[in-house]
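Look over what follows to help learners.
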Amino acid sequence: MSGNSDPLTPRAKLAVTAGKAAAAVSRAAGRGSGSVIGGRVALRLDPDLLARLATHLDVILVSATNGKTTTTRLIAEALRAAGVVVSNALGANMPAGITSALAGGSDAKFAVIEVDEKYLAGVARDTDPKCIALLNLSRDQLDRAAETRMLAEHWREGLAGSKAVVIANADDPLVVWAASSSPNVVWVAAGQMWKDDAWSCPSCGGVMQRPGDDWFCGECGFRRPTPSWALSGDYVLDPHGSSWPIHLQLPGRANKANAASSAAVAAVFGVPPQVALERMYQVQAVAGRYDVVQFLQRDLRLLLAKNPAGWLETFSLIDPPPTPVILSVNARGADGTDTSWLWDVDYTRLTGHPIFVVGDRKLDLAVRLEVANQSFQVCDNLDQAVQQAPPGRIEVIANYTAFQDLRRRVGN
């Protein structure tokens, strides 16, 4: 496809127009951004539209279980130093949403695209990316996305022989296994707090050894590669040994790791680490995540956590006790309908916090908190939880659709 001076055929142009019209109708009806329905309509009219839209762009794909929306935003901000960027900034990360995003980027140089883990191989095949960032893999939506090792194998097969520069987290054995089929990999020591999905070797099934930050399989020799980029405290170390300070408005170690990977991606396109990291400071919130909003005369910080690894990272960045915490969990289609993952989360980390529980599956969460010996109150809704919470800023942690419900309620 690449090299085509006019990739948009009359059929493709019609598809783009129809997709934008469908999206506009969806927005007017109050059904959201319309990006998904718009993309579906466009792809129905021209199944090759995604590939056509990508031909004039330097495409960067970002995939992971956690952090892909934020990292996509950080990379996009960094690459704006080198040209116009189009991105699916609101997180519509399956082919329809990606198609909608690219349809709005006719004057762009770069496309920075978040991709759902399950669709990475197919989107990479269609868009011929210059760079692919792989951050982590852990259990999430097991009713939909399948077991993590199967996903890693799917990535490995799909990326075999890819011409893209793959920026991959050297600290996640599943990511390393997936990326190792690619001929051009740049390894980043981004860290891995959640290790419970990587105790067996993805190569042979043997038991992983994990001395300190290192890891290796004692049976087949599969081991952590030597990184050329690394997160070290509040600094990014580049391949030349220089250290660059990370100044983010986004909280937590996980976002510093995202910034390290983003700096490595930006360097592929000639943006120096200092410039990339300075531009990342502009990002204050990502699709409502980390926003502090006022609701019922209280300050609420909105935090998204969709799976055990995400909850673990989120617990590490909330204010200490006695800060009140509201937890909200749903189990709708977009969340995954299986709530058994709640039992993998270490809720003892909330000891000392006043806890208030809301959401569709508040009783599932209440049972889990009871077993973890936590004191909590089950509330009918957000309003009641906020009214009962003691003074101080409230940390609100929710999974995907619960987070969207909360944003609508607080007018964010």
The longest strand covers residues 298-304. The chain is about 35% helix and 15% strand.
